[in-house]
Amino acid sequence: MNPKTLQYLMGHSDIGVTLNTYTHLGLEDAVDELKRVEELENARKEMEKINGEGTVSQKMFRVI
Fold first, then answer.
1. Within a domain: 15
2. In this structure, is residue 30 part of a structural domain?
């Protein structure tokens, strides 16, 4: 569930209260998220192969 939705449903004025009360993470959660990141990276590489394109630059601003 979206944390902001849960905050609203629980009537918490501060998202910190919601997050500190209803979120509990462990090693398995971290491992699962790392797997998702790896899957996304693999999918990106596969799309580059299919499209024949290089990585898209995400730089939006130039330091002057």
1. no
2. yes
- The answer to the question of residue 3 being in a domain is no
Instruction: Say if 36 falls within a structural domain.
Output: yes
**What is the C-alpha to C-alpha distance for residues 31 and 38, in angstroms, rounded to an integer?**
11
What's the whole-model pTM score? 0.49
What's the domain range around 42? 25-52
Q: What is the DSSP letter of 13?
A: S
Q: Which of 42, 44, 63, 64 is nearest to 55 (CA)?
A: 44
In 3D, which of 44, 61, 62 has the Cα closest to residue 53?
44
pLDDT tens figures, 4-63: 999 999 999 999 999 999 888 889 989 999 999 999 999 999 988 888 766 555 666 666
